[in-house]
User: Which sequence fits this backbone?
């Protein structure tokens, strides 16, 4: 499933979209801002002006309301977006506060006074990116397995499975099977068609699990050796580029690799720039190969001019999610960095 743009009206500054994947909600969070108008189907208690007490107890009715956005909240745990604001259009309660809650399957109309290029680009990218499969990681050793999913907005730890092996039981085949059976049962609901499955960790446990999964009919598995298991092992795999062939189509993999390269170049005083003035100077001099901007930075500032300056000189802009470790590293640099073609 992929985000659908149902219609655009350039005269009114309106775009209607359908949310069809978890990632679409994350993209919506990064596109909406205070002052926008969002129109969607919702429920609200029917207005009964003659009897306020009865109004509070009245049944909720479905209606279409347009609200002026005052606050936006993204919940990663249940992947929902809450949009709070005052009602501007609708059958009742104009000027009163209301909260719209968006989940997958919902559609909405967004109206802005001015759409930034970075916002329309993000919607277009969301349509393309949602065609790409997510990646499932199983990071394990002989004692414990961590199951995680790579989404467009970051890594999400889903479950931990413990082997419960101890003493003589460690040698018992039934114990090994029980450990692997539980892992396989946990990933069943998570796996979708064409989804790459990456098994990683130290030792030989991952190879043993891979054999068991093949017998269960699983395909598209990639086995990698890492020095650590758990989420630390997943981050190690991504940062060192060992899973590059799998991750190359993943936006998060591309972002993490770029930030790792940026930090490496900064560490050796190489082809990198950070700090707003240094980045801007490099951009207008045509020295920027890749501009890295944290998504929260784009929500706070209009950086379209800077992005255009980079792209007009055959550079590219990479918007980095703040939901994964590399995004947090970029945040420590002020939310921006640049990989350079040459040292200035």
Assistant:
């Amino acid at each position: 499933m992929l985000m659908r743009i149902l219609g655009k009206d350039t005269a009114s500054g309106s775009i209607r979209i359908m949310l069809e994947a978890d990632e679409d909600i994350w993209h919506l969070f990064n596109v909406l801002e205070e002052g926008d108008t969002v129109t969607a189907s919702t429920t609200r208690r029917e207005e009964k002006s003659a009897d306020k007490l009865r109004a509070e107890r009245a049944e909720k009715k479905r209606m279409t309301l347009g609200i002026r956005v005052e606050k936006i909240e993204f919940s990663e745990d249940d992947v929902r977006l809450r949009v709070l604001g005052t009602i501007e259009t609708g059958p009742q309660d104009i000027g009163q506060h209301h909260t719209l809650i968006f989940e997958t399957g919902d559609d909405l109309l967004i109206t802005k006074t001015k759409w930034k290029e970075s916002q329309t680009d993000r919607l277009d990218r969301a349509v393309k990116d949602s065609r790409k499969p997510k990646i499932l990681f199983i990071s394990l050793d002989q004692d414990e397995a961590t199951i995680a999913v790579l989404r467009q907005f970051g890594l999400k730890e889903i479950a931990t499975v413990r082997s419960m092996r101890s003493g003589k039981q460690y040698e018992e085949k039934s114990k090994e099977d029980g450990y692997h059976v539980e892992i396989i049962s946990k990933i069943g609901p998570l796996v979708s068609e064409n989804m790459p499955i990456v098994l990683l960790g130290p030792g030989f446990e991952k190879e043993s699990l891979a054999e068991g999964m093949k017998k269960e009919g699983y395909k598209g598995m990639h086995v990698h050796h890492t020095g650590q298991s758990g989420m630390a092992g997943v981050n190690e795999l991504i940062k060192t580029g060992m899973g590059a062939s799998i991750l190359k189509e993943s936006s998060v993999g591309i972002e993490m690799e770029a930030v790792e390269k940026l930090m490496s170049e900064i560490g050796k005083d190489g082809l990198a720039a950070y700090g707003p003035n240094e980045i801007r100077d490099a951009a207008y001099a045509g020295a920027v190969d890749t501009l890295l901007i944290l998504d929260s930075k784009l929500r706070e500032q209009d950086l379209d001019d800077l992005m255009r300056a980079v792209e007009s000189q055959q550079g590219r802009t990479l918007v980095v999610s703040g939901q994964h470790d590399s995004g947090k590293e970029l945040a420590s640099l002020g939310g921006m960095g640049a990989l350079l073609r040459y040292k200035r």
